[in-house]
Amino acid sequence: MYLKRKIYKTLSDNLANNKIIILTGARQVGKTSLMKKLSEEVKGEGNMAFLDMDLAANLEKGESLEKFRDFLYLNGYTEKSERFYVFVDEFQRAPSLANIFKNIYDHYENIKIIASGSSSLTIKNNLKESLAGRKFIFEIYPLDFEEFLIFKQDEKALDYYKNIPKLKSSDAELPELLNKYLNEFLVFGGYPEVALNNGKETKKKLLRSIFDLYIEKDIMIFSDIENIPAFKKILEILAVNNGQLINYDKLSREAGIHNKTVRSYLSLIEDTFIVKEVRPFHSNKSKELTKTPKYYFLDIGVRNYFLNNFADLRKRVDKGQVWETYILQELIKNNLGETKFWRTKDGKEADIILEEEGKIFPIEVKYESQGEKRHLNNILHFLERYNLNKAFLFSRNFNKDIKRDKKQVRCRVGVNFFNTLN
Question: All domains of the chain, ordered by start, with CATH?
């Protein structure tokens, strides 16, 4: 049974136009499942073909336009077809496919291409010029918390989730059922197969298999990295320092590799959708590029895998770090804007600055809070400095609007908090 993702309707709506649809994202996040569901939606008599480029036997079909076209003909395509849909999974494995797609788009108006890829670096390099103006790219992430609940198929938990914004009491508590799922999500993350399995040991094995496949298929095949142990070491260090300012020299010393190599590894790790680089907010945009960034894992379960720490979050010393990562991930997965952080030379900082269509939303994240003054000082200072009126604090247990000198901080439980930002 297919469990529908939130992005599915957008993808389905885009089947009607002539643009090439490109799905990008890490392996095992559900790109293939999305494409197979889309293929079922359009499937008719001889009107579609599905090509999995992860199968070595299929690689030759992406070597030239002639071979690709023959594949289409063998699967029922004719120039008189009303609409013929071509689904190509992991298309980055055949470097010629980008130019083939361009040729198909330009000369075969009745062919619609839907393709997926797991390495944004390879995809960007292949598509930058060849498919300019011809494609729509959609990034597919691991499940957000609402999708996680959908995959659990627990209607009561979903009802609780949808009703969280209605809570009025300041010390609002999550129902135990929702708490149980949230704790599971904050430990094992949102990879679909991991979410669908309940046993802790099974979840650990699945996370290991995801990482092994990542190394085997995305790193060893599509990069020139020879020092795999150093690459893994960088991932482990990033897990420990998740959400912290990066010191390149320290990373270089700990991994035993050159500073330049560290930076190339970090780019590769981000380009293969394991982490997200978050840059500092500055009113002078050019200065943001020169400042030290932070890196956050795009899945909490993967981060915990590299830490080898699957303990209950409530017993962990890094629960604040995990909670901050969760809030950031929810914002990114729901495409709510560009995420940054703010930090001054004298130590003032805001965990997240969300920029969306010219609007700026400063966000403080606390695992537990009762709106203490020390939790609000930094974002109130940010409001003053940039002449803004509204900020946000997301915790697990506090739900109240706090006003200070015409400045408002909306404190909300960090579950289904999206309407708060409107």
Answer: 8-139 (3.40.50.300), 145-421 (no CATH)
